[in-house]
Design a protein that fits this description.
By secondary structure, the chain is α/β, with parallel strands linked by helices. The chain has 5 helices and 5 strands; from the N terminus they run E-H-E-H-E-H-E-H-E-H. The protein has one domain (8-120): Response regulator (Rossmann fold). Strand 4, helix 4 and strand 5 form a beta-alpha-beta unit.
């Protein structure tokens, strides 16, 4: 039995159905997820709490995912970043501005998302999917 503290993920996704879908898949894989619907709502969480991963859509109202990742780097430098996006041009911008961040392009299977997160942390939670 794994008694380690679960890996904590801050999920920023403005689309309700997608946010629910992603959070559920990650929770089912054993991750602890805090989900918000915009980048500006993620900032207070980054200021007051510790997260292992920021999983963010890139195109969102008020503050895009790249700007959110830059704030995350300032507030919580140990937090890894993974972007999700449906826009190829945005993927290039993200890769240029956040070179250490992983970019996952929509559409993707939930299994692929969980596998990528597992890979980032060297866990094997995806084996049960």
């Amino acid at each position: 039995m794994n008694t380690m503290t679960p890996i904590r993920i801050l999920l920023a996704e403005d689309e309700d159905a997608m946010r629910t879908y992603l959070a559920r898949a990650l929770e089912n894989a054993g991750y602890e997820v805090v989900a918000v619907d915009r980048g500006t709502d993620a900032i207070p969480h980054l200021e007051s709490d510790q997260f292992d991963l920021l999983l963010s859509d890139i195109v969102m109202p008020e503050m895009d995912g790249i700007e959110l990742a830059q704030r995350c780097n300032e507030l919580s430098p140990g937090t890894k970043v993974m972007f999700i996006t449906g826009f190829a041009a945005v993927t290039l911008k993200a890769s240029r501005e956040q070179p250490r961040a992983k970019v996952l392009s929509k559409p993707f299977h939930l299994k692929d998302l969980v596998l990528e997160v597992d890979r980032m942390f060297g866990t094997e939670a995806a084996a049960s999917i």
